[in-house]
Task: inverse folding
C-alpha cells in the first residue's frame, strides 16, 4: 500500500502499533510533547520537528535568519502547547552543497534569537551533508511541575473552545509567497507571520497555571485538523461559531483584494502557532484569548454559520 493511503496520522498510528506503547506513567506518541516524570515533583517534556526544503520552505524565498528563527519557533511552540518551560534544544542539519557561510551565519543568528526569546540554549545536535535539499531537525526539552502539563485528552463537554490570537495570517502569507502577490504592508505582514511565528511560551505557562484550563495544543495544521485531535483524544465533539474566529485586519484586506476566502485560510491554513485550548466556563486566564465555540457531547465537529466542512493541512 502506498503511504499516501494511510495519511500522516494513519502512518503515525502504524508506527506506534509496530513499536509498542510508552511505559507506565510516561506519555508517548500522540500529544505535542512526550511527558516523562522526574524526581522532585517535575516532569520533562520532549518534542521534535523536522523542516525539509521544498516541503516546508523555499530556500530562495525565506531569508536564512528567518528560517533559523522558524526552525526553533515551531519546536518551542510544542513546549508552549503543553504549558512547559523550555530548557534547551538540539539542532541537526543535513546541508547540501552550494550553501555559504553567510547563509549559515544568518541561520544560526535567527535560531539564537528565538532560543534567547524562549530562554533555552542550544545544547547539541548533529551536522551532515544532504544529497537532496536542506533538512533541519530540532528537538526541544522542557519542564513542568508534575501534573501541570496540559494534554489534548482533557476537554470536557461544556468547555469553551479558545485560541490565543488571530488565525489564517500564516496561511495567507504562504499564498502571498506561492502566488507572487505584491508585498505591500498588509501582504508583507502576512508573510512575516508565516516566516516568523512567535511561540506562545508565556501564554502556555500562564494557561497551565490556571486550574479551569483543561486541554491544550498548538495550531500547526489549522484548527480544522488540530481541533479534531483534541476531540478524538477527549472523546467529545465541538461546535465552532465561524463568525467568532479572530481574523486580522491584514488578512481581511489581502483576502478582499485577492478574492481569497479568509475563513478557509483561518481554519485550514495552518502554521499560525497560536494555542488552542478548552476551559470551564467562568475561568479567567491572564492571557489574551478569543472564545470560538464549545465542547459538546458526542463526536461531531459542527461549524455554526457555514454550510461546508473544513479539513486542515495534510502532509501526505
Ligand atoms: P505536532 O504537530 O504537535 O508536532 P505531529 O502531528 O507532528 O505533532 O505528531 C503527532 C504525534 O505523533 C506526536 O506525539 C509525535 O511525537 C508523534 N510522531 C510523529 N511522527 C512520529 C514518528 N515517525 N515516530 C514516532 N512518533 C511520531
Ligand atoms: Mg503541536
Result:
Amino acid at each position: 500500500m502506498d503511504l499516501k493511503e494511510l495519511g500522516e496520522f494513519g502512518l503515525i498510528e502504524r508506527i506506534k502499533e509496530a513499536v509498542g506503547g510508552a511505559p507506565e506513567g510516561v506519555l508517548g506518541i500522540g500529544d505535542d510533547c512526550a511527558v516523562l516524570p522526574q524526581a522532585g515533583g517535575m516532569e520533562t517534556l520532549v518534542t521534535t520537528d523536522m523542516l525539509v526544503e521544498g516541503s516546508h520552505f523555499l530556500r530562495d524565498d525565506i531569508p536564512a535568519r528567518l528560517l533559523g528563527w522558524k526552525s526553533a519557533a515551531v519546536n518551542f511552540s510544542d513546549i508552549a502547547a503543553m504549558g512547559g518551560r523550555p530548557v534547551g534544544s538540539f539542532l541537526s542539519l543535513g546541508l547540501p552543497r552550494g550553501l555559504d557561510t553567510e547563509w549559515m551565519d544568518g541561520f544560526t543568528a535567527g535560531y539564537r534569537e528565538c532560543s534567547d526569546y524562549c530562554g533555552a540554549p542550544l545544547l547539541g545536535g548533529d551536522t551532515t551533508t544532504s544529497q537532496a535539499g536542506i533538512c533541519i531537525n530540532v528537538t526541544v526539552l522542557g519542564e513542568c511541575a508534575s501534573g501541570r502539563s496540559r494534554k489534548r485528552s482533557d476537554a470536557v463537554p461544556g468547555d469553551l473552545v479558545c485560541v490565543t490570537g488571530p488565525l489564517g495570517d500564516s496561511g495567507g502569507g504562504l499564498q502571498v509567497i506561492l502566488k507572487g502577490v505584491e508585498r505591500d504592508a498588509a501582504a508583507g505582514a502576512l508573510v512575516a507571520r508565516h516566516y516568523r511565528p512567535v511561540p506562545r511560551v508565556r501564554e502556555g505557562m500562564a494557561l497551565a497555571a490556571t486550574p479551569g484550563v483543561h486541554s491544550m495544543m498548538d495550531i500547526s495544521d489549522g484548527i480544522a485538523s488540530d481541533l479534531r485531535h483534541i476531540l478524538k483524544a477527549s472523546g467529545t465533539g465541538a461546535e465552532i461559531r465561524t463568525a467568532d474566529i479572530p481574523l486580522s485586519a491584514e488578512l481581511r484586506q489581502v483576502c478582499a483584494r485577492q478574492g481569497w476566502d479568509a475563513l478557509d485560510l483561518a481554519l485550514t491554513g495552518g502554521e499560525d502557532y497560536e494555542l488552542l485550548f478548552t476551559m470551564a466556563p467562568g475561568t479567567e486566564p491572564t492571557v489574551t484569548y478569543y472564545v470560538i465555540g464549545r465542547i459538546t457531547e458526542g463526536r461531531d465537529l459542527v461549524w455554526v454559520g457555514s454550510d461546508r466542512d473544513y479539513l486542515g493541512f495534510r502532509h501526505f
Q: What stands out?
A: The domain at 31-145 is CATH 3.30.1330.10 (60s Ribosomal Protein L30; Chain: A;). Residues 12, 15, 29-32, 49, 78, 220 surround adenosine-5'-diphosphate (ligand 1) (CB under 6 Å). The chain has a mean pLDDT of 96. The chain has two domains: 31-145, 152-304.
